[in-house]
Amino acid sequence: MTYEHIKSTLLIGLISLSIVLTWQLYTFQPEIALLDDNTSRYIPDSLNEEREERVITDVVVPEQIVVHKQHEYTMIPGNDGRFKQLYEKLVGTNINEVNLLATGPFPKHDDRGGIEIIFPAPVPGDVFLELFEIKKEEFSLPFSEVDRLFLYIDASEQVHMQILSSEEERVIEVGTTLSVKEFEETYLEKFDEFKSVTTVKEQSSYHNRLVESVYIPTEPVTVKRLSYAITPLSPEFYKQSLFTDPSSVKYYQQSDGEDSYTDGNRIIMMQNNGLFMDYINPVFIEPQERSSKHIVQTSYEYVNGHGGWTDEYRLLNWESSDIRDEATYLLHVNGLPVIQFDGQGDMALLLSRSGTQIVNYTRPLFELDSYPIDASQSIQLPSGEDVIKELNKQEFFNKERLSKVAVGYEMIMRNSSFVTMEPHWFISYGNRWQKVTFEEEEGGTNGLE
C-alpha cells in the first residue's frame, strides 16, 4: 500500500468517525426525566374537557345584598336564587348620568326602602364598566374604584342607583332601566322573606354622610355541613399552559420529596403532596414598566386564558404597590366562602404581577365534584349579634378594626379522596381573616383563632 493510499484511508476513517460522533451529539439526551415521558407534548383532549372561559360577572360578585326598609334590614342569602337574579338584571341594565356631583347621604333614606349591594373589594373603574358592558367613551365614571351600590325608586318613578367610592369619599347617582314593578314586587315587598340583619355599629356612631355598615344576622344561622369527593388536576395541563415551550420542561424532585417542573427559568413547585401548586416566573429586568391594566383585569384574563376557573372562585381582594400587584380569588361553595383549608391556608387563586408580567400564581390542584356526597347534617351557628358579644369579651378587641363578619366554610381534608366543609363564623379584623369559636366549640375554648 502506497503512502498516498494510507493517507486516504485515514482521512476517510476520520470523516466517518466525525459523522458518527456528530450524530450521537445531536441525538443525545441527558439523564433527566422529561415531564410525563409517555404523554404527548400537546395538551390532550382529556385535559381540555370543561375548560371554558367565564365572563367577568362570574368572578366579580357582590358578597352581600341587603334590603332596606326604613331603619330595618334583611339580607338575601347568597344561595337564594334571587341573589343571582338581581345581580344579573342589574348588570344587564342600561345606565345614564343623573347627578355626578351628588353629596349623599349614602345610602339614601326613603320610606319605600332600597337595596344595598356590597362588593368584597373595591371594583376598579374599568372593571366596573365592563360588568355593565359599557365603553369608556359612553360613560364618564368620575372615580377609580367602586365599593357599594344602592338601588332605590326616585320621585320620577324610576329605579336609580347610587355608586359609592370609599377611597375617594364620593358618591354619584345614575338612572337605570330596571323595572320599577319587578323591583318592588320581587324584592322590596318580599322584605320579610329574607334573613333579618342589623348593623354592628349604631348609626349615631358614624361621623360622615357616606355610611358603610357591617351587617350581621339577628337570628341563629343554619348551614349544612357538606362533604365532596375531589378530582385531582393534572400538573401536565398547567405545564402545557404556563410554559412557553412545554417540550423543554424537566422534572425534578425537591429535597422535601415534592415534585417540581422547570424550563430553567420558570418553575412549578408542588406542595402538600401535590394538592397545591406554586408557579414562579422570575423577572430579572429592572425597572419594570407598569401595566396600563388593573391587576384585577390582568389576573382575570390570565386565569381565563388557560381555563383555570375549575370551581366557583370569586374576587376576594387586591393590593397594588410600585413593586408588586396581587389579586386573590376565593373558592365559594353554596354561596359561602371557603376561608381556610384545615389550617393550611386559603382555598384561593393568588396571582402576583411585576410590571406587565404575572410572576407568581398559586392555586389548589384539585376540584370538587358537582354535587356533595353528604349534605345530611345541618349545623346551627349563633347569631351575628352573639358573635359580637363573644368578641367584646376579648380584652383588646376594637370594634373600629372590624371590617367584615361572615359565615364561611373551613375545608377539612382527612384523606386525598374527599373533603368536608365545616361552617363557622369568621371576621376580617385588621385586614386579617380569623375564625370565631365559642365555649361549646373546639374542646371548650372560645375567642379568635
From TrEMBL:
Residue intervals of the Regulatory protein YycH domain: 4-449
Looking up Pfam families in the UniProt record yields: YycH
* UniProt keywords, alphabetically: Membrane, Transmembrane, Transmembrane helix
**Keyword Transmembrane in record:** yes
Q: Which InterPro entries match?
A: YycH, YycH/YycI_2
Segments traversing the membrane: 9-26
Q: Does the keyword tRNA-binding apply?
A: no
Highest taxon, organism lineage: Bacteria
What is the official name of this protein in its record?
A: YycH family regulatory protein
